[in-house]
Specification:
Radius of gyration: 22 Å
Shape: globular
Mean pLDDT: 86
Order of helices and strands: HHHHEEEHEHEHEHHHHHHEHEHHH
Low-confidence stretches: 445-457
Strand content: 5-15%
Helix content: 40-55%
Number of helices: 17
Largest sheet: 8 strands, mixed
Strand order of the largest sheet: 1-2-4-3-5-6-7-8
């Protein structure tokens, strides 16, 4: 009989396990107390954190500049619609019913800035591009930039594309199912497999039906790329519906975390995540902490966490961009989907979720190997853009698992989130995306009413 954990963890990992458990108990207790507090009390904590920050901050100056006003406006926007409205774009909201009963929110930018479509929910005749976010995110991450020139969806809309953005089950815009209550364990019983089997192909088919198009272009970020790698590999016919797959900060089989204790602990037994966080949503209290902490303090907490877990210093993202974007960074996801990632890291393979959790650490080994996503079978053209300082991208390992027609662009000095919010994405990232779309999706150049700008690097 295999005794859980015994023989699989080192002494310092047991220390981390015990420490993590007590921290989780403390955090849960504090979150529960905060949940019971009236709004005036929460506002009091927020005001005190602001006072303390200004008292000890050396860089604090009175009054706000125009760029600070923009950052505050983006930060305080309540949802996707307000973010688009701030920049003068009219958006559409759509809902997709997946084959297994989840309701997913889709956002659409069918027109250029200041324009409004006369018949919402119909075809525009433009080339269609679909953007999908990463882990613990939602569609807001694409449009929470502090200037429109660095915002990929806005640039694409101006270039004459019909722009769509998806959302994973369970997040801010997709927390509903026709079968399960979101407070139930069954609602959160999903992993990357479910994104690949249902969320991605069902969203793509819905978009093609609405736009009356035969294919679209897919742009993914981080886990949004992993979901496309998986979906295209197991749905051969989906390759006919995606004319190009552009992967920003692509994720397939990350080496692990920069924090040795956390990395070793989770790889030794990925299902420890269930012990820490249960079987529903992970880090559900994050929005609570965001509500009571003054934005610069919350930003500092996020930066410290990213440095600890991934060794990212985020120097390519401006301070005000962090203030604006970090407020839109987090959205709910299942614990199971995070466990799935640790299984992938542990095995060093882009595989489907391993339901036989008892097999981990067995002295007699496994009687089977979890099925792997057959990514070499992808026919759709693949374009990779990755940062050479991104600790989550092992580009050589990735290329071994992808078809020979994959093309790669390395972004010098870029980390993971830089590809979304970096200060120079309008020069380093967006031109490559637009040019790839031009090459692969523009069957008829006349679809672009004002022509398509050719960017040079």
């Amino acid at each position: 009989m295999v005794v859980p954990l015994i023989g699989r963890l080192k002494g310092h990992e047991y220390t981390a396990l015990v420490g993590g458990f007590f921290f989780l108990v403390f955090e849960t207790a504090i979150s529960f107390i905060i949940m019971l507090l009236p709004i005036p009390i929460i506002q009091w904590f927020y005001d005190r954190s602001r006072t303390l920050f200004h008292r000890f901050s050396e860089n604090h100056t009175k009054g706000k500049s125009k760029v600070e006003d923009v950052a505050d406006a983006i930060r305080m926007a309540k949802d996707f619609g307000e973010l688009c409205q701030y920049w003068g774009y009219t958006h559409e909201e759509h809902v997709v019913l997946t084959k297994d009963g989840y309701l997913l929110g889709l956002h659409r930018l069918p027109t250029r800035r200041g324009q409004r479509k006369r018949s919402p929910g119909t075809s525009t005749g433009k080339p269609v591009v679909y953007l999908h976010h990463g882990l613990l995110m939602n569609s807001e991450v694409w449009v929470c930039l502090t200037n429109a020139e660095r915002c990929l969806p806005f640039v694409l809309a101006e270039q004459g594309f019909d722009v769509w953005m998806g959302n994973n089950r369970g997040n801010k815009y997709s927390k509903k199912s026709v079968h399960h209550d979101p407070n139930s364990v069954k609602f959160w019983n999903y992993s990357l497999d479910d994104f690949a089997w249902h969320d991605i192909p069902d969203s793509i088919q819905y978009i093609l039906d609405i736009t009356n198009s035969s294919s679209l272009s897919y742009v993914g970020f981080s886990q949004g790329t992993a979901q496309a790698f998986a979906a295209l590999s197991i749905h051969p016919h989906l390759n006919e519906k995606v004319n190009v797959f552009i992967a920003l900060a692509p994720a397939m089989s990350p080496a692990g975390l920069a924090a040795p204790l956390v990395d070793g602990l989770m790889k030794a037994s990925p299902t420890l995540m269930y012990l820490f966080f249960g079987r529903r949503a992970i880090l559900s209290s994050a929005t609570t902490w965001q509500a009571i902490l003054y934005p610069p303090i919350f930003t500092s907490v996020i930066d410290t966490s990213l440095r600890f877990l991934f060794n990212w210093d985020s120097q390519n993202i401006s301070y005000l961009q962090k203030i604006a974007a970090y407020a839109h960074l987090y959205s709910l996801a299942s614990v199971k989907s995070v466990v799935h990632w640790f299984q992938i890291m542990r095995e060093g393979a882009f595989q489907m979720y391993d339901d036989d959790v008892s097999a981990f650490g067995s002295p007699v080994g496994r009687a089977y190997r979890p099925a792997r996503f057959p990514t070499k079978n992808i026919v759709t053209p693949i374009v990779l853009l990755y940062g050479d300082r991104d600790s989550l991208v092992d580009i050589q390992m990735m290329l071994k698992e992808l078809p020979d027609h994959t093309t790669v662009t390395r972004l010098d000095g870029y980390e993971h989130l830089d590809i979304l919010w970096g200060k120079d994405v309008d020069k380093d990232v967006i031109p490559d995306v637009v040019n790839a779309l031009k090459v692969h999706s523009c069957e008829n150049p006349e679809k672009f009413k004002d022509g398509l700008k050719v960017y040079e690097r």
